Amino acid sequence: MPPSNAITGRSVRAVAERTADLLNTLARDDVRPGDVVAVLCAHGENDPVVTWHDVESMRVSADLLRGVLAARDVAEAAERINSVLARVARPPRLTDHGGASHWHVHVDSDDEAPLAEWFLTSAAMALALLVTDRQRPPGGSCAARGCDRAFVDAASGSPRLYCSRRCATRERVAAHRAGTKA
Questions:
Q1: Gyration radius of the chain over CA positions
Q2: CB atoms within 10 A of CB 23
Q3: Fewest C-beta in 10 Å: which of 1, 57, 60, 66?
Q4: Cβ contact 89:121 at 8 Å
Q5: Which helix (DSSP H) or strand (DSSP E) does residue 106 occupy?
Q6: Are strands 93-95 and 139-141 parallel, antiparallel or unpaired?
Q7: Are 23 and 66 in contact (CB under 8 A)?
Q8: 3-state DSSP assignment of residue 24
């Protein structure tokens, strides 16, 4: 599957955001191939084909990536990313998918690699680049009560705790209400 974003510059953030969206979609009990297609299309993929087998294989990849995001510190995140890359990555290579896209780096086995392999390797590379750029874990799971959505923290500034502004606001309001009732 030709990716629409190379693993460089601002596109690291795009691949990281695609990773978070796929992780959250694949975590649903009722996920269907069409749901994965919708996420891929929303992130610029052209006419992706996703089977039930792809969904199940991608869920295995998603579990490994969630482990990276669950790391308590940067050393643990790096160790988990290294483990993922050692398991599946091949030597880096440049491809333009036969002229169908711009030149970019891949670490999967080839341009026709299985979807789960492509997802795992491109996500692991993006997370690795976030770690090297920011020197902290690349994301996490939402700290809001009742929410376990994965998020990737590609921004500068303080580390994120919540998957969205909505969850952060809900937690601040709950803390404020709890404090004023005491």
A1: 17
A2: 26
A3: 60
A4: yes
A5: strand 104-106
A6: unpaired
A7: yes
A8: helix
| Separation CA 134–CA 25 (nearest Å) | 26
Three-state SS at 17: helix
CB distance 143 to 171 below 8 Å = yes
Along the 182 residues of the chain, how does pLDDT read in single tens digits?
444 444 444 588 899 999 999 999 999 999 999 999 999 999 988 889 999 999 999 999 999 999 999 999 999 999 999 999 999 889 999 988 888 888 888 999 998 899 999 999 999 999 999 999 999 999 999 999 999 999 999 887 888 899 989 999 998 888 888 875 44
Structure tokens that stand for 99 in this block? 């002229």
Biggest CA-to-CA distance, the chain: 65
* Type of residue found at 71: A
Alpha-carbon dihedral angle through residues 24, 27, 33, 36, given to the nearest 10 degrees = 10
Q: What is the pLDDT of residue 4?
A: 43
